[in-house]
Specification:
The complex is a heterodimer. By secondary structure, chain A is mainly β. Chain A is built from no helices and twelve strands. In chain A, about 0% of the residues lie in helices and about 55% in strands. The chains are: A mainly beta, B mainly beta.
Chain lengths: ~110, ~110
C-alpha cells in the first residue's frame, strides 16, 4: 500500500524567504511519480511540480524545486523567495497505480 | 486555468436524493479521475476512466457510479445521499493511463442537508 506523510500541519514563512515543506512516502513499487499540488482558499488544485522515481536530477519549476532523496523516501518541496500569494495548502502526492495524497501543510506567508 | 471544466460549481440537496456531477477533460486527455475531498478523510481517489473504460477503482461507495462517454466527458452519479457525502468533488484529467501529471478541475462543492 502507498502512504504519504506530511508532518507539518502548518508553517509560517517571512515574505522573500525560502521554505521547505516536508514529504515522506512509502511504497514497494519501483516505478512511481511524486507530485506537489497547491490549494488556495478558493479551493482549486494547482499542479506545481513532478518528479519521476527514475529521474536522477531534482525537478525544478520556477521558484519551486523538489528535493528528492530516494533512499530516504523523501520528496520535499522548496519554495524560494516566498510571496504573499504562496499562502495556501500544499499537498504531496504519489502515483504508482493511483494518486495518493498526504494530509497537506498549510503555509502562511507573513509580510 | 487547468483546462478541465466541472459543473455545477455548487450543489445543495437533501438526504436521499441523487445528483450528477459533470466533468470535461483537457483537450487531448484520455483519462478522467474523480476525487472526494472532505475534512475528515482528506483527498481520496474514487475512480479512473481511460478512453471510455474503467481503469482503476479507489474508495468509491456502491451508491456512487461514474462513466466516461465517447466524447470523453465524464459524469459522477451520487445516489441515496447522506450528510457525510458533503464534500468537494474534483475531476482531474491526464494524457495517458497513469504516471503522468493530473490536472484538476475547479471542483463541485456538494452540500447535503
Amino acid at each position: 500500500a502507498q502512504k504519504i506523510t506530511q508532518t507539518q500541519p502548518g508553517m509560517f514563512v517571512q515574505e522573500k524567504e525560502a521554505v521547505t515543506l516536508d514529504c515522506t512516502y512509502d511504497t514497494s513499487d519501483q516505478s512511481y511519480g511524486l507530485f506537489w499540488y497547491k490549494q488556495p482558499s478558493s479551493g482549486e488544485m494547482i499542479f506545481l511540480i513532478y518528479q519521476g522515481s527514475y529521474d536522477e536530477q531534482n525537478a525544478t519549476e520556477g521558484r519551486y524545486s523538489l528535493n528528492f532523496q530516494k533512499a530516504r523516501k523523501s520528496a520535499n518541496l522548496v519554495i524560494s523567495a516566498s510571496q504573499l500569494g504562496d499562502s495556501a495548502m500544499y499537498f504531496c502526492a504519489m502515483e504508482s497505480y493511483q494518486l495518493t495524497f498526504g494530509k497537506g501543510t498549510k503555509l502562511s506567508v507573513i509580510p | 486555468d487547468s483546462g478541465v471544466t466541472q459543473t455545477p460549481k455548487h450543489l445543495i440537496t437533501a438526504t436521499g436524493q441523487r445528483v450528477t456531477l459533470r466533468c470535461s477533460p483537457r483537450s487531448g486527455d484520455l483519462s478522467v479521475y474523480w476525487y472526494q475531498q472532505s475534512l475528515d478523510q482528506g483527498l481520496q481517489f474514487l475512480i479512473q476512466y481511460y478512453n471510455g473504460e474503467e481503469r482503476a477503482k479507489g474508495n468509491i461507495l456502491e451508491r456512487f457510479s461514474a462513466q466516461q462517454f465517447p466524447d470523453l466527458h465524464s459524469e459522477l452519479n451520487l445516489s441515496s445521499l447522506e450528510l457525510g457525502d458533503s464534500a468537494l468533488y474534483f475531476c482531474a484529467s491526464s494524457v495517458g493511463q497513469g504516471l503522468d501529471t493530473q490536472y484538476f478541475g475547479p471542483g463541485t462543492r456538494l452540500t447535503v442537508l
